[in-house]
Fold this sequence. Notes:
The chain has a five-stranded mixed β-sheet. A two-stranded antiparallel sheet has the order 1-3. 57% of the residues lie in helices and 13% in strands. The longest helix has 39 residues, at 84-122. It is built from twelve helices and seven strands. The protein is α+β, with helices and mostly antiparallel strands.
Amino acid sequence: MRFIYPYRHYVVSFLLLSMITMVSQLFRIELGLINIALIHLIPVIVMALRGNMGSTMVVTAGSVVLFDLLYVPPEYSFDVHDLSYIWSFIIFFAVGYTISAQAKRIQANTIKEIFLSTLSHDLKTPLSSILGNASLLLKEQMYDAATRREVLVQINDSGQRMNRLVANLLDSARLQDTHSALRKEWCDFEDIIGVALQEFRYNPKESQISVRIDPDLRLFWGDCALLVRLIVNLIDNALKYTDNGKQIRLSVTSDAKTIKLMCFNESTPIKKADLKNMFDRFYRIDHMGDIGGSGIGLSICRDIVNAHSGVIEAYNVQNGVCFEIRFPVNKLPSEGLKELL
């Protein structure tokens, strides 16, 4: 099923095309050729609304082939004796192209609006906090050491939030660029988690985080910078939805073929619909209260995992939510050492 999932829109469109063809064959006389041609445009429109030009053209070609083969005289051949049908074929492709182009433009505008809204809100909030706290420190009255430290911690926290947002936006752009290859090297998950935890060393909930790493864990051939971003986003998400005193557990284990990374946080259960959609870009869980964030952190996690041919999923457990990631082990350290010799 995970193999089929990326191609689900193709599957749905071709199933729809098969159903339409069966109905058209059963009610061929009643429908007439014009209506049959019109309903064969339905799967083309369904795919075109996704805004993917390539997939739209594939489904359009399938519709044209079936329509020509089954209904255009002479039937069961690709010969066309009436040139008017050529225009029908051209119209099929024109409709698919036009709808797909418009859908892509609308999607781009929507993402642009959400992107600008994200920047205006999620950058403005921590920036206001930094400026406000900095102005307190610049005042002439002296503060005791505890108060000064609290103000500095708030400035650091706001700066880290801004840094994570900018890093997520840059990584998102990089992962969307199909020409930008991963910068792979041998990665040690113990070091990666250590670097990621440094971003939260002043967070009040930092002590709630526990880490368990398989002592026999092998090195992983991947992009270390992106894997650090993956861990940072998982921990950041867990901290947002975990109350004071609750546990956050991070573990990394492995077997001969897989490295498994799990991030658990004690929290209230999440609805199934949210579990399914929470990795979509800019998706926010509305019923979890006033929790800040851009809604792109988990989508970046999904993109990073996919870029490493892995699988990520979230599910409820007895007393919280667990994120499970599985990376395939396609290369062993010994192979890399041989390349260096």
